[in-house]
Amino acid sequence: MKNLKLTLAALTLASLSFGSFAADLVQSQPGDQQKVGVITVSGASDLTSLESSLAAKADQAGAKSFRIIGAGGNNQLHGTAEIYQ
């Protein structure tokens, strides 16, 4: 029971802190942010996992937001996004 409480507390804290630092997906460049680079990912099986992979990479780069500028592929998808700070 004690382990369950600790696990739930840890998951709650992790989800709160993750949400506060996650890069936002945008449709156009935010007016108050500057483009700081381009990221790419490959090997995604569907569009949802491609978006998640790009979001994770944008977070790793310290971006506040990202905009997907290209996606393609047959069985394995690849995507490109601009990142903003």
TrEMBL record:
UniProt cross-references to Gene3D superfamilies, sorted A to Z: Flavin-binding protein dodecin
Domain YdgH/BhsA/McbA-like: 34-85
Keywords on record: Signal
Signal peptide: 1-22
NCBIfam families (UniProt xref): StressCuResBhsA
Official protein name in the record: YdgH/BhsA/McbA-like domain-containing protein
Organism of this sequence: Serratia marcescens
Species lineage: Bacteria, Pseudomonadati, Pseudomonadota, Gammaproteobacteria, Enterobacterales
